[in-house]
């Protein structure tokens, strides 16, 4: 059985944090921008503190998409519903 060292475990944890951060950032564009944007920023900060350089891009994207979602959330959601035929 192969042992997983702490570096591999930290890298896997960072990947999970970054994925959750990106999903939250994109979700903040469509619904609950303040909640999902804040969650994306927190995930980016946690990933950055763990040593990941990709966490900074998650933070910036979360802030930009949260601001866009706060301003245009109704228009974006209506357009998406119309595009998908819902």
Question: Can I get a quick summary?
Answer:
By secondary structure, the chain is an all-alpha fold. Helix content is 85%, strand content 0%. Helix 1 (6-30) packs antiparallel against helix 2 and helix 1 packs parallel to helix 3 (54-84).
Tell me what the structure shows.
There is one protein chain. This protein is mainly alpha-helical and 86 residues long. It has one domain. Helix content is 85%, strand content 0%. The protein is built from 3 helices and no strands. The protein has helices at residues 6-30, 33-49, 54-84.
Furnish the topology, listing elements before pairings.
Layout lengths: L5 H25 L2 H17 L4 H31 L2
Helix pairs in contact: 1-2, 1-3, 2-3
- Gross geometry: elongated
Order of helices and strands: HHH
- What number of domains? 1
Structure annotation, total helices: 3
Mean pLDDT: 86
The biggest beta sheet is recorded as: none
Q: Report the β-strand fraction as a percent range.
A: under 5%
Name the helicity range.
over 70%
Number of strands: 0
Radius of gyration: 16 Å
Structural class category? mainly alpha
The separation of the N and C termini measures: 50 Å
Low-confidence stretches: none
How would you describe this structure in keywords?
single chain; 86 residues; mainly alpha; 3 helices; 0% strand
């Amino acid at each position: 059985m192969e042992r997983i060292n702490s570096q591999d475990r930290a890298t896997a944890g960072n990947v999970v944090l970054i994925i959750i951060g990106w999903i939250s950032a994109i979700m903040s564009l469509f619904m609950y921008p303040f909640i999902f944007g804040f969650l994306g920023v927190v995930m980016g900060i946690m990933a950055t503190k763990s040593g990941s350089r990709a966490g900074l891009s998650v933070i910036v994207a979360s802030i930009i998409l949260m601001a866009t979602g706060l301003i245009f959330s109704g228009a974006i959601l209506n357009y998406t519903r119309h595009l998908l035929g819902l």
